[in-house]
Amino acid sequence: MSAARFVIVAPRVITCDPARTRPGDPLGVVEDGAVLVEDGVIRAVGARAELLGSEAGGVRVHAVEGVVTPGLVDAHTHAPWMGSRDAEYAVRLAGGDYEAIAAAGGGIVSTMRAVRASSVEALSATLVERLRRMATLGVTTVEAKSGYGLDEASERRQLEAVAEAGRDASLPRLVPTYLALHAVPPEAHGDRSAYARQVAERWLPAIAAAGLCRYVDAYVDRSAFSVEDTRPLLARARDLGLGVRLHAGQFADVGAAELAAEFGAASADHLEQVGPAGIEALAARGVAAALLPLASFTLRQAPPPVDALRAAGVPLVVASDANPGTAPTESLPLAMAFAARLYGLTVAEVLLGATREAARTLGLEASVGVLRPGLQADLVAWDLPHENALIQPWGCPRTRMVLRGGALLSG
Ligand code: NIG
Ligand code: FE
């Protein structure tokens, strides 16, 4: 893939381009299609015969056998984490409750201890390995949250590791999010509001000034932070020009979806527990719902109200939530399979939710998530003949070739 100009031809090119979608073809599929790439950018997409016919001589052609899609975009991960929660898994398999384990000083705070003990170099090395595995699964863009440092220096180290990995073009693209309110660290002695104030007034401006994050996130839930704890943080984020995404309604509807709408968040994530008012608020502000089926599977929860979200016109995103507690995996394709099987999303909803709609929530709609001229040549050639095969729970890499900006990430 090193040549500056080449064409990929495939029996089925899934463009996800709204300019190509029609009733009955929500994915804008080009059969017997071709994608012309030049200097890392998509120059043309179309029928193979037309595209090759207009290319008078000399262009290198890579014929692939399976379906071709845009590179997958994972819009919710906690990728820069360290350590292992294997002891907790054993407790949970024996019936232990996730929130109770966290309340007793396990959960997020146990990963905090591993992160606090890690240098930027160690964080970055672990993150890079994780990102390489994600790339083998077809993922070319990853949103990466901090949130396991729980003090300013450690949160910064997590985000510096993301910045470091983000400079490496042989890895998926990275979008850094400061997960500012995730849990209360032991030294705050349970004083949530004082902790939240310090994060909003001191840590966030410093982290933003260092250019370490594009989004701010908070875990707004019954055993986490309240709407009142979180509002000053989001107001400050808005003043600093940062985007907002929220962990909303994973365990209880405490008004997080309405809060996400109030601040015009890019997405409200989880939403296993959201009522009609929250759904209406999301729809009115065009806030996407980022669905995280691996987390609800791990926690044995019922799915979010997908039919109501869809009926209200809330854009649907599917993400991995890769984290050591509730989604101990790195596989967006597995999340896609579960979104179809457990949540009842259509194949098209799943694919758009892991490409175009995900990119939109990351502010990257002008560069990735769709196969269209002018966008980055981030694409995947799958060892699978059809998109219906793509959303099955293979649990192993089924990519033949994964490109970021026209260059090979995996394959
Ligand atoms: O998205 N719920 C909050 N945060 C993560 C889990 C964090 C953890 O258990 O380490 C989530 O599910
Ligand atoms: Fe999460």
Automatic annotation (TrEMBL):
It comes from the Bacteria. InterPro entries: Amidohydro-rel, HutI, Metal-dep_hydrolase_composite, Metal_Hydrolase. One of its GO terms (molecular function) is metal ion binding. Residues 67-397 form the Amidohydrolase-related domain. Pathway: Amino-acid degradation. Its EC number is 3.5.2.7. The keyword RNA-binding does not apply. It is an enzyme of class 3 (hydrolase). Gene3D superfamilies: Metal-dependent hydrolases, Urease, subunit C, domain 1. This is Imidazolonepropionase.
